[in-house]
Amino acid sequence: MENARELLFLGLLFVACVGAVETYSNEGFLNGNVSTYPYFEFNVPRNVTTAVGQTAFLHCRVEQLGDKAVSWIRKRDLHILTAGILTYTSDQRFQVIRPDKSDNWTLQIKFPQLRDSGVYECQVNTEPKMSLPFRLNVIEAKARILEASDLHVKAGSLVTLTCVINQGPHDLGTVFWYKGSEIIQPAQPHVNDADTVSRVTVQNQWTDGLTSRLHITSAHLSDSGNYSCVPTIAAPTSVNVHVINGEHPAAMQHGNKNTAPLSLSLHCTLVYSISVFIIKHIR
Fold this sequence. Notes:
6-stranded mixed β-sheet, alpha+beta, 2 helices
């Protein structure tokens, strides 16, 4: 009787073990796989910076997705932006990009604005739910010209305008210079005019920021006007350049030098006269 009970117990234990093995096999713990459960690829940028108006991309990679679905959620209001390849917002700037049979589910945000900054979550509808946060930083890159907003230069001198963009994403684009509404395109010397040097040149330098210098050699009176630095990813800025004949700055400087001494002389004369008048009346 006792042996029969032991055999029954061993039989039930065997059945339980077989059931556990089948469960683990279905979940992918055997047959050479660690797991068939979905998981995120963490080797992707999760703190993304872009400029206002420059398309942003948040790359979410999910391995072994199986029959599960990927959604993108805006954290601040828990708004579902996309589910699968479908868009669930009326804001057409948001779209998910997923190449056929790819593990990448990329949220594309066109023409981002400052208000779009914040946390976005890539979610998988497992139980419990899986989510991976991404932070989007939308900044307003600003260009500035280092010279005065109204620049006076002598005819024949060298004019240099320096435009700097210090804040922005890694890809700062490039810069175009305009005089009025006309784009400045430095003339290239003709092959037969090797000794000819263009009076107008542009030099762009990418380091921690973007620096663009416009050089005008031997400035002419006709070079006067409004000059604009127009970056591809930042707000433009401009200065007014006034090219004047050589004698004008000297005349203006001469006038400024004479005005102060003359005013001081009149003041001293007036004080002396009043002092003499008071002394006479005291006596």
